[in-house]
Amino acid sequence: MSDRTTTSNETPFRYTAQMAQDIELSWQDRWEEEGTFNAPNPAGPWAEPDKVAARGEKLCVLDMFPYPSGVGLHVGHPLGYIATDVYSRFHRMLGRNVLHALGYDAFGLPAEQYAVQTGQHPRKTTEENMTNMRRQLRRLGLGFDNRRTFATIDPEYYRWTQWIFLQIFNSWYDADAVRPDGGLGRARPIAELVAQFESGERPLPGGDTRAWAQLSDAEQAKVLEGYRLAYTSEAPVNWCPGLGTVLSNEEVTNEGRSERGNFPVFRRNLSQWMMRITAYADRLADDLDRVDWPEKVKVMQRNWIGRSAGARVAFPVTLAAGERAGSTTDIEVFTTRPDTLFGATFMVLAPEHPLVDSLVPEGGWPDGTHDDWKGADAEASATPQAAVAAYRLAASRKSDVERQTEGKDKTGVFTGSFATNPVTGQPIPVFVADYVLMGYGTGAIMAVPGHDERDFEYATKFSIPVVRVVAPSLDEADAPLADAYVGDGVIVNSASDVADLNGLGVEEAKARIIAELEEREIAEGTINYRIRDWLFSRQRYWGEPFPIVYDEDGVVHALPEEQLPLTLPDVPDYSPKTFDPDDANSSPEPPLSRVPEWVEVELDLGDGRGRRRFRRETNTMPNWAGSCWYYLRYLDPANDTAIVDPGNERYWMGTWPTPVAGAPAGTKDPGGVDLYVGGVEHAVLHLLYARFWHKVLHDLGYLESEEPFRKYFSQGYIQAYAYTDARGQYVPAAEVEEHPGGPGEEPTFTWGGQQVFREYGKIGKSLKNSVSPDEMYDAYGADTFRVYEMSMGPLEVSKPWETRAVVGAQRFLQRLWRNVVDEATGEVVVTDDAPDQALTTQLHRTIQGVRDDFEDLRFNTAIAKLIELNNSVTKLGVAPREVVEAMVLMIAPVAPHIAEELWSRLGHSGGVAYAPFPEADPSKIVEEQVTCVIQIKGKVRDRVEVAPDISEDELRELVLARDKVRAATQDGIRTVIVRAPKLVNVVPM
RNA sequence: GCCCCCGUAGCCCAAUCGGCAGAGGCAGGCGACUUAAAAUCGCUCGAGUGAGGGUUCGAGUCCCUCCGGGGGUACCA
């Protein structure tokens, strides 16, 4: 495969892999020495305003933060980096000041797991991995500003991660505060909330009438906890014994397992750090309109946030048990269909609903209770208390997985109580059933079997009346319902002395009933969200320590900013306490809790109370923390007084005067990174968390931009074939031989003579189909590898790696090389003669096409156009300098090393990195003749050469006079469609 | 089940506004170079666009139904 050995004595100057390597290494050294890709900053410690002024508009290009894997890169990993590098280099040649840098996301579970597996300290393995990855990427010739690199594990970086945590901790969300843009709601310093409590402007929550100063420290802390954007809370969380840590909702699959490692996850009540991302739910959903992202990812985020408009409605009920037995209270439900309130014939509470106990009467069932309502457990069905207790116990023992896998078969038990439908006044039975979830809405529903599929199933199974309140038309008001009718229509059977909705449309009825019931204080229009607060603590070693201590009363204190960073201590045993993955009753044990000399400290927090004893927080942050803001640090990595100088943030990420394409009219641009490229797997994790932090920092006045990523492009993956033998074991894919099948048959595959079976999917060491970039550098060189990856197809689609196809990219570069350099003598062989008309036209058309393609990230078609142009030049035998130089500049973003070399051999000093990109001359694109296609009834029947500026009338006449057209139109002409100059379609009678 | 995306040559992919189905690459075939092979170079073969229907003068492109592949989501009231 390598032609390293094929450089014969006759062609010592051929562009071989060896030649490519020599060229590439020497230019990489030169770029590094000269700091070619360093981007000047307008402000901060590196301020070079003169250099900034000397360049054109800024452009901030970003790749998703890589995690330095222990096994090194495979050929799929650099795809996005090459794409962003091509885009960056293209824009440098257009004169823009381009910032492109790469750092490392080095904290977190994978790094720690790799260290545990190899029995080494995570810092050691992580640093080794980063060294290897840096080497692999440097060899690829990426034009990063290497001054701007860092890793999340650097104390000088995580100092600021901890600082941001403190800003969030010391903030609350004031939903009534007016933002500069006129919207409502923003984060404010917690001190301003304390001031409101102190002055009495804001009453204490829960009807507490004491003055703020009368509260103890612990009581004050408790109150503030209810407001802080980062807070501890005792709540049901996702405990994963197999990983020894808790996980956020976003890290748990819908099968109820950990996204990483696929271990079972259990719900446990534990005290954990949370981030109040729910406060930002509206803005996170609304502002998706303002960014240029793939629609698919926007939809995924909107679904995750899960905003739905509806109403909270109170259903009165008389308590049947408990201290307040006999008194009346309300069961509050959330519904998106208040228009169907008249059709609510029963209610359902989640098994965990706190009201259940007081709804179940002592003694027997109410007279006439349907046997089906008493529960599936015959032994427990004698009394409501026994039946409900049995049902709740059974439900509590079910995992989320079991609840789901049991499918749609509805189960439930009657509580023995009836509530009152507030609009009909009718008593309706209240059930406990596990198809209602405590975690959504109020954990209780009004069930409308006529117009909700789940309620219909339940009503059918338990013989509950079904009432139609929506019909396709008034005529069908009493048509029987064979299924829940969920379509649009007109409201029927919905009148009482409370309200009359009959005849209204669904949307009108919703508005009407909410208005009526709000007046009576029975309901209120409301918005409900699916998103929950973000669980932020992990019981692992390899993460940022929280800058938090607890005093002897258990009150939370933030470390003063001057005491940051709080460094991660070196510990003898950094591995997590391991558990049986299925042991739901295990409890997390953070490794840091095993270091008492670090945990128990005496500190002066600078609060005037002197040195006191404290206990440190022993949880660590999730690896999302470091990746939530790294893009900001690239802008000003050496700044030790701020996360980023405001001048740098405004310059690199500030808002543009015009909004992104496709934004609604009147939209204000949110600013942010100009191009962000990465895989879609972080659609609701990293991309949502980073947006949240960015908005908090914006609210607190640290950032001008409102979004982190103005344009996000989701790249496809490079995948590969893998092969298994008869036992299902993977065999080395590189050694498999393909045998073509007969016509219409699949090919067959053998390895070492035995038949093997092909599958398609991810690249991985364990699948034995991994190809490393290093192998490509050795066999072809980095430029060939770059050209191949960029020419495989559109950046956004996934496509299969095919090593044997890489040679096509090499042949192209060889042909380009040969057009400039004589393989035998090394002499430059271009001619100074001007290209002919046809080649000139092709050149300028190519320039225009390549510019457009690069701008729109269509690198595959740009390369195809360059191959075409190069092929035209090759056919001439001798290459005109004008065309060759333009080609060298145009290929430079994709294949920068060979371009530098050829550019220099063509007699230019100064390099191609900042050479101006060729400009198309529109006057030279115009051809003297164009081919006009003549269609008869839509089928191509003739062609004619015409002038490009021929008029429609001239062309029509010309075409109608042609023999073939006259022959076809002897019976007359129905119509003639003229699209001058390229097409005429004649339709005969 | 629901929602979204994608089906063009043996394979990866072009066709930008509804206007000649083919730009580019791989593989295959033939030829040149070679003692021979590899590499290289030149030439060349190759689909009617997943299936069916519709709109249109004209459909890969727009609409409907179905089939196949991928992704998201799943009792979210």
Automatic annotation (TrEMBL):
Every Leucyl-tRNA synthetase editing domain range: 302-517
The EC number(s) this enzyme carries: 6.1.1.4
Record: residues binding ATP: 765
Region annotation (Disordered) ranges: 567-593
Motif ('KMSKS' region): 762-766
Gene3D superfamilies: HUPs, Isoleucyl-tRNA Synthetase, Domain 1, Valyl/Leucyl/Isoleucyl-tRNA synthetase, editing domain
GO cellular component, one term: cytosol
Catalytic activity, reaction form: tRNA(Leu) + L-leucine + ATP = L-leucyl-tRNA(Leu) + AMP + diphosphate
Subcellular location: Cytoplasm
Keyword Nucleotide-binding carried by entry: yes
Superkingdom of the organism of origin: Bacteria
Residue stretches making up the Methionyl/Leucyl tRNA synthetase domain: 65-167
Domain Methionyl/Valyl/Leucyl/Isoleucyl-tRNA synthetase anticodon-binding span(s) in chain numbering: 836-951
Any one Pfam family match given in the protein's UniProt record, by short name: tRNA-synt_1g
Protein keywords: Aminoacyl-tRNA synthetase, ATP-binding, Cytoplasm, Ligase, Nucleotide-binding, Protein biosynthesis
Gene Ontology MF term list: aminoacyl-tRNA deacylase activity; ATP binding; leucine-tRNA ligase activity
Protein's GO biological process: leucyl-tRNA aminoacylation
SUPFAM superfamilies: Anticodon-binding domain of a subclass of class I aminoacyl-tRNA synthetases (SSF47323), Nucleotidylyl transferase (SSF52374), ValRS/IleRS/LeuRS editing domain (SSF50677)
Protein family according to the UniProt entry: Belongs to the class-I aminoacyl-tRNA synthetase family.
Protein name: Leucine--tRNA ligase
